[in-house]
Amino acid sequence: MRDKLRVGVVGCGAQAQLAYIPALKANPNVELAALCDSDVRKVNQLCQMHGVTRHFADFDGLKEADDIDAVLITTPNHLHAPMTLAALHTGKDVLCEMPLGLNAAEVEQMVETARREGRSLMPCLAARLRPDVQTIRRFIDGGELGALYYAKTGWLQGRESWSLPGWRGQRLRAGGGAFMSLGTALLDAALYLLSGYRPVSVVAAAHHRDPRAEVEDTAFAMIRFEPELFLTVEVGWSVLQEKDFTYLNLMGNGGAALLNPVQIHKEMHGHLVNVTPQISAKGIQRAANQALVKVWVESLLHGSTPIVTAEDGLVISKLADAFYQSQKTRCEVRPG
Question: Which domains can be identified in the chain, with CATH numbers?
Protein backbone atom coordinates (compact mmCIF):
# COMPACT_ATOMS: atom_id res chain seq x y z
CA MET A 1 0.00 0.00 0.00
CA ARG A 2 1.36 3.41 -0.99
CA ASP A 3 1.87 6.02 1.73
CA LYS A 4 1.45 8.99 -0.59
CA LEU A 5 -0.34 9.73 -3.82
CA ARG A 6 1.92 11.45 -6.38
CA VAL A 7 -0.26 14.07 -8.06
CA GLY A 8 0.26 16.29 -11.09
CA VAL A 9 -1.93 19.37 -11.56
CA VAL A 10 -2.88 20.19 -15.15
CA GLY A 11 -4.00 23.79 -15.67
CA CYS A 12 -2.80 26.39 -13.19
CA GLY A 13 -5.46 29.07 -13.40
CA ALA A 14 -7.21 30.82 -10.53
CA GLN A 15 -9.19 27.78 -9.38
CA ALA A 16 -6.09 25.63 -9.18
CA GLN A 17 -4.09 28.32 -7.42
CA LEU A 18 -6.73 29.36 -4.90
CA ALA A 19 -8.55 26.09 -4.24
CA TYR A 20 -6.89 22.88 -5.34
CA ILE A 21 -3.15 23.38 -4.93
CA PRO A 22 -3.60 24.55 -1.29
CA ALA A 23 -5.93 21.60 -0.63
CA LEU A 24 -3.42 19.13 -2.08
CA LYS A 25 -0.58 20.63 -0.06
CA ALA A 26 -2.66 20.44 3.12
CA ASN A 27 -3.15 16.68 2.73
CA PRO A 28 -0.33 14.67 4.38
CA ASN A 29 -0.94 11.75 2.02
CA VAL A 30 -0.29 13.78 -1.14
CA GLU A 31 3.00 14.49 -2.86
CA LEU A 32 2.52 17.43 -5.21
CA ALA A 33 4.78 15.98 -7.87
CA ALA A 34 4.37 18.33 -10.84
CA LEU A 35 2.51 21.28 -12.30
CA CYS A 36 1.54 21.65 -15.95
CA ASP A 37 0.48 24.78 -17.82
CA SER A 38 1.17 26.26 -21.24
CA ASP A 39 2.14 29.56 -19.57
CA VAL A 40 5.77 28.73 -18.78
CA ARG A 41 6.42 31.84 -16.71
CA LYS A 42 3.38 31.24 -14.53
CA VAL A 43 4.11 27.58 -13.93
CA ASN A 44 7.74 28.36 -13.05
CA GLN A 45 6.62 30.93 -10.49
CA LEU A 46 4.09 28.54 -8.97
CA CYS A 47 6.66 25.76 -8.70
CA GLN A 48 8.99 28.09 -6.83
CA MET A 49 6.17 29.31 -4.59
CA HIS A 50 5.00 25.81 -3.64
CA GLY A 51 8.31 23.95 -3.69
CA VAL A 52 7.36 21.75 -6.64
CA THR A 53 10.44 20.39 -8.41
CA ARG A 54 8.93 19.45 -11.79
CA HIS A 55 6.87 21.33 -14.31
CA PHE A 56 5.57 20.70 -17.81
CA ALA A 57 4.48 23.09 -20.51
CA ASP A 58 2.99 20.19 -22.48
CA PHE A 59 0.39 17.77 -21.12
CA ASP A 60 1.83 14.90 -23.17
CA GLY A 61 4.97 14.96 -21.06
CA LEU A 62 3.08 14.79 -17.77
CA LYS A 63 0.68 12.03 -18.78
CA GLU A 64 3.56 9.80 -19.83
CA ALA A 65 5.50 10.27 -16.56
CA ASP A 66 5.70 6.92 -14.76
CA ASP A 67 6.32 8.51 -11.36
CA ILE A 68 2.99 10.37 -11.29
CA ASP A 69 0.04 8.32 -10.03
CA ALA A 70 -2.86 10.69 -10.62
CA VAL A 71 -3.74 14.01 -12.19
CA LEU A 72 -6.03 16.87 -11.27
CA ILE A 73 -7.41 18.53 -14.41
CA THR A 74 -8.48 22.18 -14.07
CA THR A 75 -8.11 23.32 -17.67
CA PRO A 76 -10.82 25.12 -19.73
CA ASN A 77 -14.04 23.13 -20.12
CA HIS A 78 -13.46 21.90 -23.67
CA LEU A 79 -10.19 20.22 -22.63
CA HIS A 80 -11.62 18.22 -19.72
CA ALA A 81 -12.74 15.19 -21.73
CA PRO A 82 -9.75 14.77 -24.10
CA MET A 83 -7.21 15.26 -21.31
CA THR A 84 -9.06 12.89 -18.98
CA LEU A 85 -9.26 10.20 -21.65
CA ALA A 86 -5.56 10.56 -22.41
CA ALA A 87 -4.63 10.35 -18.73
CA LEU A 88 -6.81 7.28 -18.17
CA HIS A 89 -5.25 5.55 -21.17
CA THR A 90 -1.77 6.08 -19.69
CA GLY A 91 -2.71 4.57 -16.35
CA LYS A 92 -3.46 7.72 -14.37
CA ASP A 93 -6.36 8.19 -11.97
CA VAL A 94 -8.17 11.48 -12.54
CA LEU A 95 -9.85 14.18 -10.48
CA CYS A 96 -11.48 16.52 -13.00
CA GLU A 97 -13.07 19.94 -12.64
CA MET A 98 -16.72 20.29 -13.61
CA PRO A 99 -18.27 20.02 -16.08
CA LEU A 100 -16.62 16.70 -16.85
CA GLY A 101 -17.43 17.05 -20.55
CA LEU A 102 -19.27 19.32 -22.94
CA ASN A 103 -22.18 16.88 -23.14
CA ALA A 104 -23.40 13.60 -21.70
CA ALA A 105 -21.94 11.57 -24.58
CA GLU A 106 -18.44 12.78 -23.69
CA VAL A 107 -18.98 12.00 -20.02
CA GLU A 108 -20.30 8.53 -20.79
CA GLN A 109 -17.15 7.89 -22.82
CA MET A 110 -15.02 9.08 -19.88
CA VAL A 111 -16.88 6.85 -17.41
CA GLU A 112 -16.63 3.81 -19.71
CA THR A 113 -12.92 4.41 -20.35
CA ALA A 114 -12.20 4.61 -16.62
CA ARG A 115 -14.06 1.34 -16.08
CA ARG A 116 -12.30 -0.38 -18.98
CA GLU A 117 -8.84 0.82 -17.93
CA GLY A 118 -9.43 -0.03 -14.28
CA ARG A 119 -8.79 3.57 -13.22
CA SER A 120 -10.66 6.02 -11.02
CA LEU A 121 -12.46 9.09 -12.35
CA MET A 122 -13.90 11.58 -9.87
CA PRO A 123 -15.51 14.95 -10.61
CA CYS A 124 -14.70 18.03 -8.52
CA LEU A 125 -18.06 18.18 -6.78
CA ALA A 126 -16.92 19.92 -3.62
CA ALA A 127 -20.06 21.91 -2.78
CA ARG A 128 -21.78 18.85 -1.32
CA LEU A 129 -18.87 18.51 1.10
CA ARG A 130 -19.27 21.99 2.57
CA PRO A 131 -19.92 21.83 6.34
CA ASP A 132 -23.16 23.81 5.97
CA VAL A 133 -24.46 21.55 3.19
CA GLN A 134 -23.58 18.47 5.24
CA THR A 135 -25.51 19.93 8.18
CA ILE A 136 -28.63 20.46 6.06
CA ARG A 137 -28.31 16.92 4.72
CA ARG A 138 -28.38 15.54 8.27
CA PHE A 139 -31.62 17.41 8.96
CA ILE A 140 -33.15 16.01 5.74
CA ASP A 141 -31.99 12.46 6.45
CA GLY A 142 -33.44 12.73 9.95
CA GLY A 143 -36.82 13.64 8.51
CA GLU A 144 -36.82 16.94 10.36
CA LEU A 145 -37.96 18.97 7.35
CA GLY A 146 -40.68 16.49 6.44
CA ALA A 147 -41.28 15.68 2.78
CA LEU A 148 -39.59 18.20 0.50
CA TYR A 149 -41.77 19.66 -2.25
CA TYR A 150 -39.90 22.70 -3.59
CA ALA A 151 -36.31 23.87 -3.90
CA LYS A 152 -34.72 26.84 -5.61
CA THR A 153 -31.13 27.80 -6.24
CA GLY A 154 -29.32 30.60 -8.02
CA TRP A 155 -25.98 32.22 -8.74
CA LEU A 156 -26.24 35.74 -10.11
CA GLN A 157 -23.12 37.73 -10.90
CA GLY A 158 -23.09 41.47 -11.58
CA ARG A 159 -22.07 42.70 -15.01
CA GLU A 160 -18.29 43.20 -15.14
CA SER A 161 -18.29 45.23 -18.35
CA TRP A 162 -20.60 46.29 -21.16
CA SER A 163 -19.35 43.66 -23.56
CA LEU A 164 -18.31 40.02 -23.60
CA PRO A 165 -15.08 39.96 -25.62
CA GLY A 166 -13.48 37.20 -23.58
CA TRP A 167 -13.93 33.47 -23.11
CA ARG A 168 -17.48 33.76 -21.83
CA GLY A 169 -18.71 34.87 -25.23
CA GLN A 170 -16.97 32.06 -27.09
CA ARG A 171 -18.58 28.62 -27.13
CA LEU A 172 -15.36 26.68 -27.69
CA ARG A 173 -13.54 28.00 -24.64
CA ALA A 174 -16.55 28.40 -22.38
CA GLY A 175 -17.91 25.02 -23.39
CA GLY A 176 -21.40 26.37 -22.92
CA GLY A 177 -22.97 29.42 -21.41
CA ALA A 178 -24.11 30.47 -17.96
CA PHE A 179 -25.99 27.26 -17.30
CA MET A 180 -23.02 25.08 -18.19
CA SER A 181 -20.55 27.13 -16.16
CA LEU A 182 -22.67 28.25 -13.18
CA GLY A 183 -25.76 26.05 -13.24
CA THR A 184 -23.86 22.76 -13.16
CA ALA A 185 -21.95 24.02 -10.11
CA LEU A 186 -25.23 24.75 -8.31
CA LEU A 187 -26.56 21.30 -9.13
CA ASP A 188 -23.74 19.76 -7.10
CA ALA A 189 -25.23 20.69 -3.71
CA ALA A 190 -28.85 20.70 -4.91
CA LEU A 191 -28.83 17.13 -6.26
CA TYR A 192 -26.94 15.91 -3.20
CA LEU A 193 -29.57 17.36 -0.87
CA LEU A 194 -32.35 16.03 -3.11
CA SER A 195 -30.83 12.56 -3.42
CA GLY A 196 -34.13 10.94 -2.47
CA TYR A 197 -35.72 12.42 -5.59
CA ARG A 198 -35.15 11.62 -9.28
CA PRO A 199 -35.03 14.36 -11.95
CA VAL A 200 -37.41 13.52 -14.79
CA SER A 201 -37.79 16.65 -16.93
CA VAL A 202 -36.41 20.12 -17.63
CA VAL A 203 -38.03 23.30 -18.91
CA ALA A 204 -35.49 25.98 -19.81
CA ALA A 205 -35.08 29.53 -21.03
CA ALA A 206 -32.00 31.62 -21.78
CA HIS A 207 -31.08 35.19 -22.58
CA HIS A 208 -28.24 36.64 -24.70
CA ARG A 209 -27.66 40.23 -23.64
CA ASP A 210 -24.96 40.63 -26.27
CA PRO A 211 -26.20 39.31 -29.65
CA ARG A 212 -22.58 38.65 -30.68
CA ALA A 213 -22.12 36.11 -27.91
CA GLU A 214 -22.39 32.47 -28.92
CA VAL A 215 -23.55 31.45 -25.44
CA GLU A 216 -26.22 32.62 -23.04
CA ASP A 217 -25.28 34.94 -20.18
CA THR A 218 -28.48 34.35 -18.19
CA ALA A 219 -30.34 31.06 -17.81
CA PHE A 220 -33.45 29.78 -16.06
CA ALA A 221 -34.61 26.22 -15.57
CA MET A 222 -37.38 24.33 -13.82
CA ILE A 223 -36.52 20.71 -13.08
CA ARG A 224 -39.30 18.31 -12.15
CA PHE A 225 -38.48 15.42 -9.83
CA GLU A 226 -40.24 12.25 -8.76
CA PRO A 227 -41.76 11.88 -6.24
CA GLU A 228 -43.41 15.27 -6.67
CA LEU A 229 -40.85 18.05 -6.26
CA PHE A 230 -39.74 21.04 -8.33
CA LEU A 231 -36.32 22.73 -8.42
CA THR A 232 -35.84 26.12 -10.05
CA VAL A 233 -32.38 27.27 -11.14
CA GLU A 234 -31.41 30.81 -12.14
CA VAL A 235 -27.90 31.83 -13.15
CA GLY A 236 -26.29 34.78 -14.88
CA TRP A 237 -23.04 36.66 -15.22
CA SER A 238 -24.34 39.95 -16.61
CA VAL A 239 -27.05 40.90 -14.15
CA LEU A 240 -27.41 44.65 -13.55
CA GLN A 241 -26.83 44.61 -9.83
CA GLU A 242 -24.08 45.74 -7.50
CA LYS A 243 -23.43 42.51 -5.62
CA ASP A 244 -23.12 38.88 -6.60
CA PHE A 245 -25.09 36.34 -4.62
CA THR A 246 -25.81 32.64 -4.44
CA TYR A 247 -28.58 30.81 -2.65
CA LEU A 248 -30.14 27.40 -2.13
CA ASN A 249 -33.53 27.09 -0.41
CA LEU A 250 -35.39 23.88 0.35
CA MET A 251 -39.04 23.74 1.45
CA GLY A 252 -40.62 20.78 3.22
CA ASN A 253 -43.99 20.20 4.83
CA GLY A 254 -42.29 20.16 8.23
CA GLY A 255 -39.62 22.81 7.84
CA ALA A 256 -37.29 24.72 5.54
CA ALA A 257 -33.54 25.15 5.08
CA LEU A 258 -31.71 28.08 3.51
CA LEU A 259 -28.07 28.28 2.49
CA ASN A 260 -25.73 31.31 2.49
CA PRO A 261 -26.01 31.73 5.41
CA VAL A 262 -27.54 28.58 6.87
CA GLN A 263 -30.98 28.98 8.40
CA ILE A 264 -33.15 26.02 9.39
CA HIS A 265 -36.70 26.40 10.65
CA LYS A 266 -39.15 23.66 11.49
CA GLU A 267 -42.67 23.42 12.79
CA MET A 268 -42.83 22.27 16.40
CA HIS A 269 -46.07 22.09 18.38
CA GLY A 270 -47.77 24.47 15.99
CA HIS A 271 -44.98 27.06 16.10
CA LEU A 272 -42.17 27.91 13.70
CA VAL A 273 -38.88 27.38 15.53
CA ASN A 274 -35.37 28.38 14.47
CA VAL A 275 -33.25 25.26 14.94
CA THR A 276 -30.16 26.48 13.07
CA PRO A 277 -27.01 25.01 14.63
CA GLN A 278 -23.96 27.21 15.02
CA ILE A 279 -21.73 26.88 11.96
CA SER A 280 -18.75 29.13 11.33
CA ALA A 281 -19.09 31.02 8.07
CA LYS A 282 -15.32 31.26 7.74
CA GLY A 283 -13.37 28.85 5.58
CA ILE A 284 -16.39 26.88 4.37
CA GLN A 285 -15.18 26.52 0.79
CA ARG A 286 -11.63 25.79 1.89
CA ALA A 287 -12.94 23.00 4.12
CA ALA A 288 -14.95 21.61 1.20
CA ASN A 289 -11.91 21.59 -1.11
CA GLN A 290 -9.83 19.84 1.51
CA ALA A 291 -12.61 17.31 2.08
CA LEU A 292 -12.82 16.62 -1.66
CA VAL A 293 -9.08 15.94 -1.88
CA LYS A 294 -9.26 13.74 1.23
CA VAL A 295 -12.11 11.67 -0.21
CA TRP A 296 -10.24 11.29 -3.51
CA VAL A 297 -6.92 10.35 -1.93
CA GLU A 298 -8.41 7.87 0.54
CA SER A 299 -10.37 6.17 -2.23
CA LEU A 300 -7.16 5.66 -4.21
CA LEU A 301 -4.79 4.76 -1.38
CA HIS A 302 -7.16 2.75 0.81
CA GLY A 303 -9.97 1.70 -1.52
CA SER A 304 -12.66 3.53 0.45
CA THR A 305 -15.99 4.25 -1.24
CA PRO A 306 -16.11 7.95 -2.19
CA ILE A 307 -19.12 10.17 -1.55
CA VAL A 308 -18.47 11.70 -4.99
CA THR A 309 -18.65 9.53 -8.12
CA ALA A 310 -18.33 9.96 -11.87
CA GLU A 311 -21.98 8.96 -12.16
CA ASP A 312 -22.88 12.10 -10.16
CA GLY A 313 -21.13 14.15 -12.81
CA LEU A 314 -22.95 12.25 -15.55
CA VAL A 315 -26.37 13.06 -14.06
CA ILE A 316 -25.47 16.76 -14.06
CA SER A 317 -24.28 16.53 -17.67
CA LYS A 318 -27.55 14.89 -18.74
CA LEU A 319 -29.48 17.73 -17.09
CA ALA A 320 -27.32 20.27 -18.92
CA ASP A 321 -28.04 18.52 -22.23
CA ALA A 322 -31.75 18.61 -21.42
CA PHE A 323 -31.50 22.30 -20.55
CA TYR A 324 -29.98 23.24 -23.91
CA GLN A 325 -32.41 21.03 -25.83
CA SER A 326 -35.36 22.54 -23.99
CA GLN A 327 -34.05 26.07 -24.53
CA LYS A 328 -33.71 25.36 -28.25
CA THR A 329 -37.03 23.62 -28.77
CA ARG A 330 -39.03 25.52 -26.12
CA CYS A 331 -40.39 22.21 -24.93
CA GLU A 332 -40.17 20.15 -21.75
CA VAL A 333 -37.33 17.62 -22.14
CA ARG A 334 -36.58 14.41 -20.28
CA PRO A 335 -32.86 14.07 -19.39
CA GLY A 336 -30.87 11.16 -20.77
Answer: 5-124 (3.40.50.720), 128-285+316-329 (3.30.360.10)
